[in-house]
Description:
The chain is of the alpha/beta class. It has 9 helices and 10 strands. It has helices at residues 15-25, 51-60, 79-99, 116-134, 152-162, 174-180, 184-191, 225-234, 256-276; strands at residues 2-6, 29-31, 67-73, 103-107, 140-144, 167-172, 195-200, 202-205, 213-216, 240-243. The strands form 2 sheets. Strands 2-1-10-7-6-5-4-3 form an 8-stranded parallel beta sheet. The chain has a two-stranded antiparallel sheet with strand order 8-9. Strand 1 (2-6), helix 1 and strand 2 form a beta-alpha-beta unit. Helix 3 (79-99) crosses helix 4 (116-134) and helix 4 (116-134) packs across helix 5 (152-162). The chain starts with a strand and ends in a 6-residue tail after the last helix. The mean pLDDT is 96.
Amino acid sequence: MKLAFTTLGCPNWNLETMIFRAVQYGYQGIDFRGYLGKMEIYRLPEFSTKLEETRDRFREASLEIPCFSCSVRLFTESTEQREEYLAELKQYADLCEYFGTPFIRVFGGLIGDREKEEAITIAARNTAEYFKVIEGRPVTLLLETHDDWTGCQVVQELLSQVNSPQLDVLWDVHHPYRMIGEEPEQTWNVLGDRIRYTHWKDSYVKKEHKRGYQLCLLGEGDIPLYRMYRLLKDQGYEGYFTLEWEKVWCPEIEEPEIAFKQYADFMKQLEQQVSSGPTMKF
């Protein structure tokens, strides 16, 4: 089992602390979504003028950067915004090549009043432009199950229209279940052959919260994490299990020193439970 965490969960940690804690808690990777308050990490010395030093530190710690999580949206009707996304994608594609990172996370984006079919066509057309940036590179864009692209059917329709192995799926196991009541088996049956990476979090319903739910430590909410993990393992998934601890957006949740260690311990317990139990049938 390969574990990673996104830097969204540790906004105040420097690179030295991230690497030390990752090794200490038993992680194999760090997924970059911002660094020390900056989302555009390619503007920072660690990912521009000091690239070699950063790469050496990861190699010395036997850690990977399995994914760079960017802000690019596949759906946009703004030419200016699309050009900005192309420039951002170019920066992350360069970082992927340097660090040997195979994936860049992208969002579908909010579609507003657009009909779903029109939004899919526009997103597919934009994606074709984005592919020009990663052409010839060993890099795959991963569409996260998020925002207006949470449901497996709409994701599948976009994948079909794009029809390229350079666009696959990041299954945020939380969002489809929590936001639209999609069962994990349904997600897998539709998207399983395209799921290359996963994000993990837990929550419980809290109507007074602005999101309608409260994020919590893994196992303290009601997301069926055991079912999800077992499903992935039974179906031969070999990718990362990445904690997306949204400390940047939800400062009230536990500090990373607590949450990151708890996640690693929880996932190892899940692994033991699944290994000792019967195989699921579909």
